[in-house]
Amino acid sequence: MGLMEPVEELKGVGPKTAVVLKKYGIRTVRDFLYNLPRDYENYEAPTSIAEMRPGKVVIKGQITDLKTRQTRRRNLTITEGIIRDRTGSVKVVWFNQRYRERQFSPGVEYFFTGNYELKNGRYSLISPSAAEVTYIDAKSGLSPVYVAHGRLKSNDFRRLMVKSRDIFISIPDMLPTVKQGTRAKALFYAHFPNSLKSIQGSHDYLAYEELFELILASQLNRRENDKLQAESIVFNAPKIRELVASLPFKLTGAQRRAAWDIFQDMEKSTPMNRLLQGDVGSGKTMVAGMSAYEAFLGGVQVALLAPTAILASQHYEGLKQILEPLGVKIALLTGATKKKAELKKQIISGEVDLVIGTHALLTDDTEFAKLGLVIIDEQHRFGVEQRQKLMLKSPAGLAPHLLAMTATPIPRSLQLTVFGDLDISILDEMPMGRKPVSTSIIAEVETKEKLYPLIEQVLASQPDAKKHGAKAHGQQVYWVCKAIDEVPGDALNVDGGKSEITSVKKRCKRLQEVFPKAKVEFLHGKMKPAEKDDVMERFSAGEIDILVSTTVIEVGVDVPNATLMVIENAESYGLAQLHQLRGRVGRGASAAYCYLLTSGDMRPTRRLSEVARSNDGFHLAEVDLKLRGPGEIYGALQHGALDLRIATLSDTKLIARARKDVEVFLQKTENMVKYKELMNGITKYQQITTLN
Ligand code: ADP
Ligand code: MG
Known about the structure:
By secondary structure, the protein is of the alpha/beta class. The strands form five sheets. The protein has a seven-stranded parallel β-sheet, with helices on both faces. Strand 2 (55-70) and strand 3 (77-85) form a beta hairpin.
C-alpha cells in the first residue's frame, strides 16, 4: 500500500473513523504510521489476583459488570466493573473515562496495570490502563500508548495498528542509507516493540530522520534565497562614521560587529537574510537605524515593521532624532496615522526614505518606489504570511535585504537546525550603565508581609529622572498576571503542578484597595488598540503608578521610571519569557527589582531559581530547552508550527551527523528527484524555517 493513500484505505478505518482521524491531521497512511506512541505501558509478569498487594500491579483477566454512574459532584462520572482471573476477582474503578464502558468485549482477556488501593473502605484497582492480551508482545509485555484523538482512544489506535500490521514490511526508506537501520523496522518497533532496546533503536532512527528533514529544509531555503537578486549596497564608510560620531553614546562592541555583518551582507547582490538577536535593552534599534541609514545612502527605501503602534512610534521618535539631521526622510504609518493616503503617495513616489509602521504597512495599497531593506522588529510576533507580504513590496525582479530582530534567544542547537538558513548576529554585550535586574522568588502567601512594603517604598521613591515619567510622584511598578479573567478551577503549570491563577482584573482591584493613594490600572491583549495605547502612554508619562498587565507589555515601550516588576504565577512561564519580561525594568538610573511570585506557598523550582541566579538570556534559553523541550518554547515563536515528534534539539551529536549527511546529500543534484517523498515532505518544514 502506498504511503500517500488516504487513511480510508487502511483495514478497519471506515468513513466515521476517517473523519475523526482527518480532523486530527491524520490524512494519509503515512500520517497514520507516523502517529507515534506517546509512551509505553509495561504489562510484563502479571500477578494473580489472589496474590495482589497494594501498590502498582499488573494483572490479566476478563472484565464484567461494567456500569457508569454520575456522582453528586457535577462533572464526575464513575465507571466500575469486576475483573476476574482463575484465582479471584477485584473491583475496578475509572473516573471520567466513560469510554471504558465500550472498550471491552466479553470473553476476551485483557492486561490491566494501575494502583491497587483502599478507596471508600474497599480495595480496588484504580484507573488502570488496559490492553487486549493478544495485542501485546508476550515476551516483553510492552504496549504502546497513543494520544487520544476525540473518541478514538489509545486502544482504538492500537486495534487499528494491529490490523495494519502487514503494511510495515513494504515501507520503503525515505532517506539514503541510514546507519541506524531501516525505516520499516523503525516504524514497526515503534508500534510493536519487543524490548526496551527496540524502542530506543526506533527512536534513534526516527529522530535522525526528522532532523535530516529539518536541516535539509533550511539548507534548501538558503539555496533559494541565494538564487534571488537584491540591490547591492556599497559600504559607505565615511558617512557611517559620521553617524556613529553623532550618537549620544558609544556603540557597544557587539553593536559594531553586528552592523559590520549587516553592511557586508548588503554589499552582496543576493538578499541578506539575517537575524539579529539580543537581550532586551541590548540596543537592537540602533543597529537597525545604522542599517537603515546605509540603505538610504545606497539609494533604496527602508521599511521597519513593529508589532505594536506604541513600539512603532517609539522607534520613530528615536530614529528621527538621529537620522533626520542626516537628511533621511522618515514617516510613521500606523492605524492611527492621519492623512494616510497622502503618506502612501509619498512612499510610492519615493519621497519617504524610511517608513516605520505596524500591520498598516502590509496593506496592498502601501507600495514603494524602491524598497531595498526590510527590518522586522520582534520578528516572532509576525506570521510567515505577514512577513512575506512585506517582502513582496520590492520592485519586480529584486528581493529586499531582510533584517529580523528578536529578543528571544535561540540556542545553538536550534540555530544549526531550524534556523540553519539564517545568518545570525548576536548582541551579547549590554550598553554601559545598565544594571542587572535583581530578582527574588516569593511565595504568594508572603505577598502582604514581604512584597507590599517594598511596593510602598518604590511608590514613595524619588522619580528616576524628571524627564522620564514627567508626571510621576514616585517610581512605578509593573505587575504581570497570567490571565485576563478568572480561570475556573486550577490550571496546570509548566513545572507540572497546579496553580491558582489570579486574573489581571482581580489583582488590579485588590492592589487598588491595598494602595488607595496610588493610581492602579490594567492592560491586556483583548483591549482595543487605542485603549491599550492610551494606558501605555499614560503609564509612560507617569500618570499611572501600578500597571497590572498580561504579557502584552513584554514587547515593550521604554519606561525608565518603572523600577519594580512583580510576575505572578511565575511558575507558569518559560525562563526566556521571564527574562524578557523583567527586561522592562532597569532601564533608568535607579536600581531595579523583579519579584517572581509563586502560586500559594509553592517552593521555588530549579527552573525559577535559575532566573533569579542568572541574567544571561542565552543561558536561560538553553536551560529551558533542556528542561521543557523546543515545542513549548519555540512553538510560540513560530506560531505553533514547530513541534518535533521525537528528536530532541539538544541532541547535538545527532544534529552534527545529520548536518554532515545533508551536506553530502545536497552535493548530488539527482537526489532532489530521486527522493520524492523526502522532497515533498519537507515543504512543511521549509515554511517553518523560512524568514521571508
Ligand atoms: P532592544 O535591543 O531591547 O530593542 P533598544 O534598542 O530599545 O533595545 O535600546 C535600549 C536603550 O538603550 C535605548 O534607550 C537606546 O537608546 C539605548 N542604547 C542603545 N545603544 C546604546 C549604547 N551603545 N550605549 C548606551 N545606550 C544605548
Ligand atoms: Mg526593541
